[in-house]
Write a structure and sequence with these properties.
Blueprint: E1 3-9, E2 13-20, E3 25-33, E4 57-58, H1 60-75, E5 85-90, E6 95-98, H2 102-107, H3 115-119, E7 128-129, H4 137-147, H5 150-157, H6 166-176, H7 178-183, E8 186-189, H8 190-199, E9 205-206, H9 207-210, E10 216-217, E11 222-223, H10 225-231, H11 235-238, E12 242-243, E13 248-251, H12 254-260, E14 267-269, E15 272-273, H13 274-281, E16 289-294, E17 298-304, E18 316-319, E19 325-331, H14 335-344, H15 350-358, E20 365-370, E21 374-375, E22 378-379, E23 382-387, H16 395-410, E24 420-424, H17 431-441, E25 445-447, H18 453-467, H19 471-478, H20 493-507
Parallel strand pairs: 1-5, 5-14, 5-15, 9-12, 16-24, 24-25
Antiparallel strand pairs: 1-2, 2-3, 4-7, 6-8, 10-11, 13-14, 16-17, 17-19, 18-19, 20-23, 21-22
Length: 508
């Protein structure tokens, strides 16, 4: 057992979490928020506003400054010399572009020079496209055409060519900025970039994050030559290798030993994306448990037995950092739609919203609310009504049931029976909403009390890969759900089956 550190570099903040796996305690947590902590940078939400044609980028130097601030704060809370291993979670699909001299910059152990100062001269692209970017629709079509169509891309890489994915982002950069592309020697994901920073050397991309690029053969766990060729010239030599998520990169860089007091024996485990990391941090790295996160957007993800892809092209198959693969389905209209329904019905708070749910009959009606254009299913803003007509009083239940049915329908391709539903996110604390998800999925619902799940997943991966800890033990200690379980009502199953069939027909 050991003391380990998990880092999460998300859209808006850098989070550092230290665990003592022997005592089962969280020793310290520190965070740097890119907007509030760096107001002079002009990125209040962690990304650069005003991009043209759907472009959304972030400043990788701000990420580095955020990491340094988080570690500075962490050093005041706990003894960093006791940390034996460290790993990283990074916002998935973000990428960093490095030019000549980048290896020397990574290896520079001078503690008097900040990370941002070391890296700025070797950036071949000043900004980093992130998961919010939608500027590559044309490039997605070009990649799909080169590989034989959307289904061929999905079968090969685990997803159809997707605008926010790294492959299309690379293609757009190489097309629009050929001189800068020619000067680019290395393309890293956020997770592999920060693992490289920590190790002071080039570090591999793991299969979990690599699968979110439209570049990796999902079945072989390695770069696909055909996908690389369809994306950009010379791409094969500009990418790090792909390795399993359990790979230990080596000891931490001298920079962190001297500047922050880490032990030179501290080991760096390669990073992964925030979604695969959260799968681990929520204790769902093995098939059977399904996680639903109810946030601004709603996501549903689970470990998959073997390798499967979504024939409809709506779900994604990523690599599971603990082996195998994982599914992910993202619904854009999550809390955004629930909030719109609450306002429309005139309820002043969520207690009134919940009361309306509890006073409405179950499985009679359903409404899929899409306040903005939706990605799952691909539909313009609007609503799809199922079953009996709704009233203002029954609309809250119908809307949440519609959201749950939509997630159930679009996760059927995963094929793994749901034995447990793990609910997280702000709306998971609402008992009425939790009961609807239990009933619709026909599975007991446990609500996760885990916070900072991506950083936690990184710490648990570090403990297993570098320190020999067993994941079953770690999950039992650090990923336990909150007390209480919400049981489904089996009598409602057939009615929900009928509503789901009606939804499927209307979407066909």
């Amino acid at each position: 057992m050991a003391v380990v550190l998990g880092l999460d570099l998300s859209t808006q903040s850098a989070t550092a979490l230290v665990l003592d796996t022997k005592s089962g305690k969280n020793l310290a947590t520190a965070r740097a928020a890119f907007g509030p902590d760096f107001p002079d940078r002009g990125h209040p939400e962690g990304f650069i506003r005003g991009g043209q044609n759907g472009e959304v980028h972030a400043d990788p130097l701000l990420w580095l400054d955020g990491l340094e601030l988080a570690l500075t704060r962490l050093a005041k809370l706990t003894d960093l010399s006791q940390i034996e291993a460290i790993s990283v979670s990074g916002q998935q699909h973000g990428s960093v572009y490095l030019g000549a001299g980048y290896q020397a910059a990574l290896a520079d152990g001078n503690p008097q020079t900040s990370l941002a100062t070391k890296i700025k001269p070797v950036l071949s692209r000043a900004s980093s496209p992130i998961w919010m970017d939608g500027s590559t629709v044309k490039e997605c079509a070009e990649i799909a055409a080169a590989l034989g169509g959307d289904q061929a891309v999905c079968d090969l890489t685990g997803s159809v060519a997707t605008p926010r994915f790294t492959g299309p982002q690379i293609r757009r950069f190489a097309k629009n900025n050929p001189q800068a592309w020619a000067k680019t020697e290395r393309v890293h994901l956020v997770s592999s970039f920060f693992a490289s920073i920590l190790a002071g050397a080039d570090v591999a991309i793991d299969t979990g994050d690599g699968a979110g690029m439209n570049l990796m053969d999902i079945r072989k766990g390695d770069w696909s030559p055909a996908a690389l060729q369809a994306t950009a010239s010379d791409l094969a030599k500009k990418l790090p290798p792909v390795r399993p998520g359990s790979t230990v990169a080596g000891p931490i860089s001298k920079y962190f030993v001297t500047r922050y007091g880490f032990s030179p024996r501290c080991q760096v485990v390669i990073g992964t994306g925030d979604n695969p990391s959260s799968l681990v941090g929520m204790g769902a790295s093995r098939p059977g448990k399904v996680v639903i996160s109810l946030g601004t957007s709603d996501t549903i993800f689970a470990a998959i037995e073997g390798i499967r892809t979504d024939a409809a092209g709506l779900g994604h198959a990523f690599g599971n950092p603990l082996g195998g693969s994982m599914s992910l389905i993202c619904v854009r209209n999550g809390s955004l739609a629930r909030e719109a329904i609450r306002r429309e019905c005139g309820f002043k708070d969520w207690d009134e919203f919940s009361a309306a749910i509890n006073h409405s009959p179950a499985a009679q009606s359903a409404v899929l609310p899409m306040e903005e254009d939706e990605i799952t299913p691909r539909r313009s803003a609007g609503r799809i009504s199922l079953g009996k007509p709704v009233t203002p009083q029954s609309l809250p239940r119908a809307a949440v049931e519609g959201q749950a049915l939509n997630m159930r329908l679009h996760s059927r391709w995963v094929g793994t029976p749901t034995t447990q539903l793990l609910l997280t996110g702000g709306a998971s604390n609402n008992p009425a909403i939790a009961k609807i998800f239990a009933d619709v999925f026909g599975a007991p619902v446990f609500r996760l009390s885990v916070s900072d799940s991506a950083a936690l997943g990184a710490a648990l991966r570090a403990a297993e890969a570098a320190c020999g800890a067993k994941m079953a033990y770690l999950e039992a200690v650090f990923c336990a759900p909150a007390p209480g379980v919400v049981q489904p009502d089996p009598a409602l199953r057939s009615a929900y089956d009928a509503l789901e069939a009606e939804l499927a027909k209307k979407l066909s």
